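Researcher: Here's the sequence for the chain we discussed earlier.
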Amino acid sequence: MNRTLAAMVMSVIPFSISSAQGLSIGGYGEVAMSRNYYSDNVYRYSNPTKYKDDPSHGRFDVPHAVIYLGYDFGHGWSMQTEIEFEHTGTGSAVEKEFTEAGEWESEIEKGGEVALEQFWLQKSFKQWLNLRVGHFVVPVGALNNAHEPLNFFTVYRPEGEFTILPSTWHDTGISLWGDAGSWSYELQMIAGLDAFMFNRDNFIKYGAASPYEFKVANNYGFAARIDNRSIRNLRLSVSGYYGNSMHNSFPNDLKDTRYKDVKGSTWVGSFDFSYKGENLIVRGNFDYGHVDDAVTISTIKRNMTSNNAPYKKTPVGKSAITYGAEAGYDILGHADRIQDKLYLFGRYEYYDPYMPAADQQDYTYTDVHRIAAGINWLPIPQIAVKAEFSERFRKDRYNNEPSVSIGIAYMGFFK
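Model: Thanks. This is the structure I predict for it:
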């Protein structure tokens, strides 16, 4: 059983699954609506004055819908699969084009994604020693470690980590994990990131993705996480990633030998915490990432990759940063005979996915402060109704970006 989901369920849902054997079925999902009171024009950062008074725009979305299936075979052997539908999945259709000599054509009906987020087999030797092989979540940062919607107050996933890191970061490899007293750990060897998938607006976010039917693994990456719960109600965690990201694309045939020794070493360090008291919940994170050879990678992407290659031509910053915190207080916590929870919450975060090297052009619109405030109503422990007002603040020449969002989310195990 997935350690993150199991811990979440045992802390949120009032029954224990620790002794269950056989089939487990569960999942989580969210539906959201937003009204954004700023321009959605693609040139709004190039010429902010021109688009300052553009009308608002609205969106309905199903950001994530996840189905979990797990099985405990006994004798320490277990497996898990997790299928995620993002934005209700993808859609295509075939139709006969009468205006083009009656040819059959395939058309994209809608965007979205269907992803196998987890698929692994596990052998548990001791509580402190478990071996997992397959496709699993990479628990670097607060969001990847606890990405289910009842683990954050905002309607959508917290923007900082969601902007600069893969989310949900899942990859194929080998993992060792375990618990010992108030400590837990996880060590992973996975496929390395692809530097050509890095970009200005999202740092390494898409580096774990693959446009192919397979995941390129010319290079390997290493991830680790350590959690401590020595203090009652408080979890303190550090996590990180390291690996070379250049020459991890397909085909691996960069013809210009000037760049054969460029490694693109990439590392991320993260600290996060969570406090859950009787009526108060506080969470926070700090993440910093760095890419060696960012200028060279940007040059190669711009000048030496094909125009129809699946890579953005935008430059890669040498570093990225995000930090933030949220706090929520249950105002019904002291009321007798009321089982509902009603959290009033506030969140602040800062992020910048593009911190340029000295000889790179700066794009100051990537520098963002964001605030959010709202409510989370939990009529039962497995369901939350969320509402919030949020606003992004960019550098002085850019327009602020206020929005209002509402959503409903669930997470739990059904068997």
